[in-house]
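Quick start: what a row looks like.
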Amino acid sequence: MQPPSLNQYQKAFTENLLSRQLLSASSEEFLSHIKPMFGETGKEQEVSDRFTIYRNNVILSLSTAIADSFPIVKRLIGEDCFTRAAIEYVRTSPPEYSSLLFYGEGFIDFIRSYPACAELNYIADVARLEWLYINAFHAQDSAPLDIGKLQTVSPEDIGDLYFECHPSSHLLMSDWPIDAIWEENLKEEVGILDVANLPASKLLIYRRDLQVQVVALTTNCFNFLYALKKRNNIAEAWSYTLELQKSESRPELDESELGGMLGYLIGLSVFTEAQIKENL
């Protein structure tokens, strides 16, 4: 039997490593290329056993990595259901890189369509929150904005200011109260939440003083910060916020609210730089 090329061998190795059925016809062919490595006859069962052990360890380590990234999702759907989902995900979406630090982003969409979670409409958004939490924790650091810089800006130029947000900052919107769900399930004893009567979530996730913060924002503050993160200056971001407010038929914003909103965001230390020109 002609030995496979390295590319063919690696492909077969991966397929059999992640296959739901270990001893298929393709597995036997694959294992036949490993047996000669032992240099002795009568080692067929030992080769199969060793590969099975390695296969189980790989599936376990990868599914454990998924569980470590999504502990709240695991708690919400139960350990058995989560384990089955994680193993299925691992088999269909193995890691592309040797580091498992950021392995599992695709699990968010996977769990959204996973049959056992079909009625849990909020589950994927909770998974997204957990994923952004991890990203915020591991993001590069940057010093918060020196507020003294703002004192040098003349009042007539304030509207022309552009802001740089902390590298760890993310915005997340959900129709569900995922922050309340997440916070409740961090507790040892979980209470019952009236999810249908809790407000939708508009969240800022970022790291401050080495601690990840999950901050619930008002709709207008969320829209304003979203526009600032999109490289709009204060005047443009405020105009964007007003347009959305009007299109959604919400109570009108007063111009005086801009100062309070901006001051609140600066107080959160979510900004790292501010200047007139857009060259941050």
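That is the whole record. The chain has two domains: 1-120, 140-280. The chain has eleven helices and five strands.
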